[in-house]
Specification:
Radius of gyration: 21 Å
Number of domains: 1
Shape: globular
Largest sheet: none
Helix content: over 70%
């Protein structure tokens, strides 16, 4: 059976390979982010602030669950990238089978747990009474489709680790077009509200997952999807956990910090503030897509380069990716500072919601000037297996800096939404200092992925 390695990213022009790999990845991430952005746009214009608030609150919970699979998938991507770079085909087969076996199991377990405790979680989050029912509906349907979300992310991680970023883009693009149509059907025409938004997203994710499976079967991928092929190689699982668990924990910790911030927002402004932060958050997630894509592309290229023993190439990839990221995020920063009301009004025309959103977005957007360095350099650290360091720095930033600062500025000093927005850039500044120390120490140069 052919391994069908699409691209050896450890050879050739750095700029050409980074561009060729990152652009489809970027387009894929942008398209995927449109799921939630379009959901919020349609809900804001056809269902109102209560539904927007419900989607924002439950979306934080769904994001935590998705963060778990993204971290584990990153572990698989790093391993696959290094196996491709070193030419270890047998380990490549085993890590693929292990990844595609553990992810569905994890999805089923998390689905059951979340459905059992969802009411308690929504209550603890100080969900406004006006949006509680909508939050419950959105959470129920999205969690019920968790297996599709996990599945697509797993397949995409495997393909990207082997150098193929084009086909995940094709599949998610098709799914997004379907998602847009379903949004207007379920929300605008049938008035399903938050439930319709969740249902459209789950159906679309299922389609993208099955498209991935169909493609792999068509090209006779080395995993044939027969029941006997789903098996766990415990040595590979330990490596996936070793690399992916810190990233997963880091993403989860950051997501949990957003839950606390959501509670603070609910205390400060109630349903209109919650809706505004939901709208701003969807725009921010869209703005972060280029940097996120470049960071993940750096991880894949650097992993293959490190696997081939070419650390200098990994560093070059990181420098170029960081420079491009700063250009992109600088443009987004200018846009938000000049036209904040226009950005928020895309998601609804309620004056109170827009006022909250403008105040929050203007102070939050200073984070745009710090994240390019943080995202891209973390991509290099991850490629070398230094995921424990990224977990610790993210935990210090999100839990011990951002949440307390949001509470201090937003509630205790009574700065309201401006203070809550300032929490992000102040916390990122703390992360930046920690990363500079780690770079200066030289420890990041040691490859921690033990592939023997």
């Amino acid at each position: 059976m052919s391994l069908d390695i699409k691209e050896n990213l450890a050879e050739g022009s750095v700029v050409k390979k980074l561009t060729k790999f990152a652009l489809p990845f970027l387009a894929s991430n942008i398209i995927q982010s449109l799921y939630v952005v379009i959901d919020m746009l349609v809900i804001g214009n056809f269902s109102g602030p209560a539904s927007m608030s419900g989607v924002n609150i439950s979306g934080q919970i769904s994001f935590i669950l998705t963060s778990l699979v993204v971290g584990l998938s990153m572990g698989a991507t790093v391993l696959i990238g290094q196996y491709v770079g070193s030419g270890d085909h047998e380990s490549l087969r085993r890590v693929t089978a292990t990844t595609l076996t553990i992810l569905p199991l994890a999805a089923i377990i998390l689905t059951v747990i979340t459905l059992v405790f969802k009411e308690h979680v929504l209550t603890l989050m100080q969900t406004p009474p006006e949006s509680y029912a909508e939050a419950d509906r959105f959470l129920t349907v999205t969690v019920s489709g968790l297996v599709f979300i996990f599945g697509y992310n797993g397949f995409s991680a495997i393909l990207r680790g082997m150098g193929d970023s084009k086909h995940p883009f094709y599949f998610v693009f098709i799914a997004c077009v379907i998602n847009i149509g379903l949004d207007f059907l379920f929300i605008a025409a049938l008035h399903f509200g938050a439930f319709g938004a969740g249902l459209a997203t789950v159906i679309s994710q299922a389609i993208s997952m099955f498209l991935c499976i169909g493609y792999m079967i068509k090209i006779k991928f080395h995993f044939d999807f027969k029941p006997s092929s789903f098996k766990i190689d415990w040595a590979q699982l330990r490596l996936i956990v070793k690399i992916g668990l810190p990233t997963s924990a880091s993403n989860t910790i950051v997501s949990i910090s957003f839950l606390f911030i959501t509670v603070i927002v609910n205390i400060v402004g109630g349903v209109y503030a919650s809706a505004a932060v939901g709208a701003a958050g969807k725009f921010n997630s869209f703005a972060f897509m280029p940097v996120s894509a470049l960071s993940a592309s750096i991880t894949t290229m650097a992993a293959q380069s490190i696997g081939a023993g070419r650390m200098e190439r990994a560093v070059s990839v990181t420098r170029i990716g960081t420079g491009v990221s700063y250009v992109i995020m600088g443009l987004f920063f200018i846009l938000v500072q000049v036209f904040p009301a226009q950005v928020i009004s895309l998601f609804g025309n309620d004056p109170e919601m827009i006022a909250y959103g403008v105040t929050y977005l203007r102070s939050f957007s200073y984070d745009f000037l710090l994240l390019p360095f943080i995202f891209c350099v973390n991509g290099l650290f991850t490629a070398g297996g230094h995921t424990f360091f990224t977990m610790v720095s993210d935990m210090l930033s999100s839990v011990f800096l951002r949440v307390p600062i949001c509470w201090l500025f937003g509630v205790l000093l009574d700065w309201g939404m401006r203070g809550i927005g300032m929490g992000a850039p102040v916390a990122s500044a703390g992360t930046l200092l920690i990363m500079i120390w780690f770079l200066a120490s030289g420890r990041w140069k040691h490859n921690l992925v033990n592939r023997t």
